[in-house]
Amino acid sequence: MVHRLVEPFLSLFRKLPLQFGGFDFTVLVALLVLNVLNQLLGQLFLQLIG
């Protein structure tokens, strides 16, 4: 079930060359992008209500 939820998002990053030395950094990059988006949206929200 989790696979069905996250695969559409991860598929966006699987198109990028994120495999180095036998390691796949797709999930790491996806989590970093989510973190940055979370911070940006949080700042935007604070500016809108503040």
TrEMBL record:
Task: Report TM segments.
Answer: 20-37
Q: Output the Gene Ontology cellular-component terms.
A: membrane
The protein's UniProt keywords, in alphabetical order, are: Membrane, Transmembrane, Transmembrane helix
Q: In its UniProt entry, what is this protein called?
A: YGGT domain protein
